[in-house]
Amino acid sequence: MPYPFSYFQNLLPFRRAFEQRKLLNWPQLLFTWLFLLALTWIPVSWTSLQRTSYPLEQLVPQAYRVFDQEQLDKLAATGLSFEQGRAQIPQKSAWQIGQDWLVLEDEAPQTQGFSWEFQADYARLLQSNQEVARLTYDRLQTKDLTSPATWTQALDQAWFASNRLVISLFLLTLSLGLLSLNFFLVSLGSAVLLYLVSKSRFNSLQGFQEAFHIILYSLGLPTLVTCLLGLLGLDLPTSVLVQNSLFLLTLALVFYQTQFRDH
Hints:
The structure is a single chain. The chain is of the alpha+beta class. It has 2 domains: 5-49 and 167-258, no CATH class; 56-163, no CATH class. Helix content is 53%, strand content 12%. The chain has 8 helices and 7 strands, in the order H-H-H-H-E-E-E-E-E-E-E-H-H-H-H. It has helices at residues 5-9, 16-19, 26-50, 69-77, 148-162, 164-197, 207-231, 236-258, and strands spanning 81-83, 86-88, 93-97, 100-104, 114-118, 123-127, 130-135. The chain has a 5-stranded mixed β-sheet. Strands 1-2 form a two-stranded antiparallel sheet. Helix 3 (26-50) runs antiparallel to helix 6, helix 3 (26-50) packs parallel to helix 7 (207-231) and helix 6 packs antiparallel against helix 7 (207-231). The mean pLDDT is 93.
């Protein structure tokens, strides 16, 4: 069977990873490596497209510490409301909570803490007088002020909607970078170790190319399974753990069935 179908045909039984270790040439090995890497990217990319919110406190820790029930009641008491993407603010006001400030339609005072500044068309968060987040009111409703959990969830959605492209690209780049680094270390690192094992006279491996063959075959099923689980909702850290664990198990089964020796 021609490549690439021959690759999938030889994923099972596990001993074929060793028996077919001379089947692919270097361009085919490189293409297979890139294909498996791309499979690890698919669930993360899909999750990024489906995302509608992201916790601001993941990037700015304690950003919502000022919004307890007492402060939300004070905000509601000022007459603050949200209609058609704008904030209705009856009068300017500001008050301090520890090192933090809540400010309505005014400029935030100098402080080393957080300042939440609500203007008619937007809100922004300042930390040590530097803007760290800005959002519009399209996703906010007056009823969101009823509880801290509801309010912070609404702020997360509003912040994400206002900065969707930047946040999505940042998270996607970070996730793909971590996945690529893990895949690079696992695949090439394991191939190098297997190549060093090939120096022993107790096995039939000859050279780095054969070692790389075995690693790519051993990564096939774990990567396919992890891709499917990721599309079903498995989170990124668990996906990496599952892939690495299944890969080690597969490689162990290849060794168990062949001892890396021709019979």
